[in-house]
Amino acid sequence: MTAKTRQEQIDDALRKLHAVVEGIRASVVVNRDGLLVAAMPAGNDEDVLAAMSATLVGLAERTLGRLDQGSLERLLVEGEDSVMVAYPAGRAMLAVMIGKEHKIGPLLYAASVTAKNVAQVLAS
């Protein structure tokens, strides 16, 4: 049996996240430059979600650093119809959108675990 590639491992992590949390609309793993590493489901908006979430996370990290408030643990953006949560994941980040009608607690836990897994995959 051959070992899975990094890409396959990250894709598996996103699939598992979608399987355990109800209501996820989209998830992306993006590098610090805003370039898409992986997305689920694949569609025409994943590049926009990747670039915008990388910009928001970068701004949040700079703001916290400038104000000496420590490192970013997660970023939460709440809109009228959905919530986006983003977690640092080593050299990348994970961003997930969920419908506002769904409970966010399970997402916060599962996304933090997924971000740690992605960070480990990228570090190997």
From TrEMBL:
<feature type="domain" description="Roadblock/LAMTOR2">
    <location>
        <begin position="11"/>
        <end position="98"/>
    </location>
</feature>
<protein>
    <recommendedName>
        <fullName>Roadblock/LAMTOR2 domain-containing protein</fullName>
    </recommendedName>
</protein>
<dbReference type="Pfam" id="PF03259">
    <property type="entry name" value="Robl_LC7"/>
</dbReference>
<dbReference type="InterPro" id="IPR004942">
    <property type="entry name" value="Roadblock/LAMTOR2_dom"/>
</dbReference>
